[in-house]
Design goal:
Layout lengths: L6 E4 L6 H12 L2 E4 H7 L3 E5 L4 E4 L1 H10 L7 E4 L13 E6 L2 H10 L4 H12 L2 H9 L5 E5 L3 H27 L1
Parallel strand pairs: 1-5, 1-6, 2-5, 6-7
Antiparallel strand pairs: 3-4
Helix pairs in contact: 1-7, 4-5
The protein binds 2'-deoxyadenosine-5'-diphosphate (DAT).
């Protein structure tokens, strides 16, 4: 049984996953797991996809690496542009960040993404691919969609998630005492 929750922060690249996860980790002491970093550092991939400039992820190796890091024990903020591979039993909250197309276009252009990658990500955001993936993979009660267009949005999101963590810990402390 976990004493700290596990939270996925997901969304299309550029929606603000890393920025939110780092700020939340700093405020709450939870551990920020950058899944892209794990994929790269622990070689959980089958090579590099030139067209999309991204690793071809080996899901089994990635899950093994996360098991080794004892992620299921709790207290992790899992930052990734995907959420369906994690066992449902590991996860307490799934936050899907959303942005307007024009904002996303500006953020991804700054990253100098190729035209193919930029368009793929804009389409993915418009088609709500990550939101649908989250809803298909987890109980609807634990999936929350939050807007991340502005710094004000981000601050209110972080306040809200922090309050949720505090309440979760309180509820679970009550449960273990009961
Ligand atoms: P991701 O990890 O989803 O790819 P990021 O956290 O790296 O996204 O953010 C991409 C860029 O956008 C980065 O320069 C920070 C900025 N940003 C993210 N969320 C924001 C927000 N809510 N308001 C203003 N800027 C934001």
């Amino acid at each position: 049984m976990r004493t700290d929750p596990n939270i996925i922060i997901t969304g299309t690249p550029g929606t603000g996953k890393t920025t939110h996860s780092e700020a939340l980790a700093e405020r709450t002491g939870l551990r920020h797991i950058s899944v892209n970093q794990v994929v790269k550092d622990r070689e959980c991939h089958e090579g590099w996809d030139e067209e999309f400039s991204s690793w071809i992820v080996d899901d089994d190796k990635l899950l093994d690496a996360l098991e080794e890091d004892n992620v299921k024990a709790g207290g992790c903020i899992i930052d990734w542009h995907g959420c369906e591979i994690f066992p449902e039993s590991w996860i307490d909250l799934v936050v899907v960040l959303r942005v307007d197309s024009s904002t996303l276009y500006d953020r991804l252009s700054e990253r100098k993404y190729s035209e193919t990658k930029l368009q793929e990500n804009l389409d993915s955001e418009i088609m709500e691919v990550l939101l649908q993936e989250a809803r298909d993979s987890y109980d609807e009660q634990i999936v929350v969609e939050l807007t991340s267009n502005s710094v004000d949005d981000m601050e209110s999101n972080i306040d809200r998630i922090e309050a949720w963590i505090t309440q979760w810990k309180k509820d679970h402390a009550d449960e273990s005492e009961a």
